[in-house]
């Protein structure tokens, strides 16, 4: 009967399941790794002196998208790593290794989508762990615990800091309209340079193999301070790239490079000085004299991404409804006035 079929659905304790508290959570999207800890235990791998001032320290860290949320992951060259040694002070370190390729997360991403292989059944499984090596470049002064880390130390890796180089919105990404790239590198910027040059094709990179000419002008205080010299040959084999070192100035290195032929309109510049404002101003001055206007610097990071909310009705339920975006309509011309058409010809309205 109608009266019997219209009763409310009650739980075993008489609770109203239709209007139950937090019922909306039944329908919330669950983003992967959102319930995982921010800090994960890593493992010391190696440490080597790359210059009298800088040391490259390599640790093994968690890189699985089932354990590391996207907002905390290493996604772009220029981001900084958060490290804690023996539960001590958090240190933000310049990263020298490239962003982790998407290929290492094939299995975790397949799993978080809810896909199954033919022989599998739906059962609760532990999150998949994916380990990757992370190399940071530090000095004794800025991060003494990381600088002196050894096999017996406990290292924790936290969320990566910053958004990285603004490659996505840079005109340098148009590789065919910007076939020539000149890079000015100094100080800790060599670590970001290494990260950028060694990035794989599935993360933002310079696509060296499609460029016509790439030059790296690396300035160091003296010859013994040139870091990662053992990597130079590998970088030059990755594309039409040539590395020129100098112990004087960027201007001298640029002027002495007689083999570079460039068109300012189709040439871009990348300035990586690791926070050295004086070196950045010097590189910008070289670009100004060379009439190069397409410039990417490590001091200007890309815009922070906007992450979706797991509950699209959260603002509505909390009483803080968002205002709809305002559209700016063009003003209507007055009667008898002239209006430009798309072809530029004035027409009467």
UniProtKB/TrEMBL annotation:
Region (Disordered) location: 314-349
Coiled coil stretches, renumbered: none
Polar residues: compositionally biased ranges: 336-349
Domain of life from the UniProt record: Eukaryota
InterPro entries: FNR_nucleotide-bd
Name of the molecule in the record: FAD-binding FR-type domain-containing protein
Species for this entry: Volvox carteri f. nagariensis
């Amino acid at each position: 009967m109608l009266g019997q079929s219209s009763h409310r659905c009650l739980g075993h304790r008489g609770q109203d399941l239709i209007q139950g508290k937090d019922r909306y959570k039944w329908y919330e999207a669950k983003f992967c790794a959102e319930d995982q800890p921010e800090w994960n235990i890593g493992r010391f791998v190696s440490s080597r002196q790359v210059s009298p001032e800088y040391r490259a320290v390599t640790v093994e860290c968690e890189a699985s998208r089932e354990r590391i949320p996207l907002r905390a992951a290493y996604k772009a060259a220029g981001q900084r790593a958060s490290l804690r040694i023996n539960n001590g002070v958090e240190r933000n370190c310049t990263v020298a290794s490239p962003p982790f390729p998407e290929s290492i997360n094939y299995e975790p991403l397949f799993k978080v989508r809810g896909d199954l292989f033919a022989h599998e059944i739906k059962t609760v499984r532990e999150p998949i762990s994916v380990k990757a090596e992370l190399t940071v470049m530090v000095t004794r002064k800025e991060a003494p615990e990381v600088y002196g880390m050894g096999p017996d130390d406990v290292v924790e890796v936290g969320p990566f800091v910053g958004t990285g180089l603004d490659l996505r919105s840079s005109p340098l990404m148009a590789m065919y309209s910007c076939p020539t790239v000149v890079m000015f590198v100094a100080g800790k910027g060599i670590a970001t340079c290494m990260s950028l040059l060694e990035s794989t094709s599935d993360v933002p990179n310079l696509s060296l193999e499609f460029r016509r000419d790439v030059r790296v002008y690396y300035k160091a205080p003296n010859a013994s301070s040139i870091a990662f010299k053992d990597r130079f040959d590998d970088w030059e084999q990755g594309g039409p790239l040539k590395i020129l070192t100098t112990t004087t100035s960027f201007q001298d290195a640029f002027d002495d490079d007689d083999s570079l032929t460039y068109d300012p309109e189709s040439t871009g510049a990348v300035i990586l000085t690791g926070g050295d404002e004086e070196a950045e101003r010097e590189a910008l001055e070289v670009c100004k004299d060379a009439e190069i206007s397409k410039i990417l610097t490590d001091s200007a990071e890309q815009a922070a991404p906007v992450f979706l909310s797991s509950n699209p009705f959260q603002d509505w339920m909390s009483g803080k409804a968002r205002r709809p975006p305002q559209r700016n309509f063009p003003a209507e011309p007055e009667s008898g006035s002239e209006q430009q058409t798309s072809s530029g010809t004035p027409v009467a309205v």
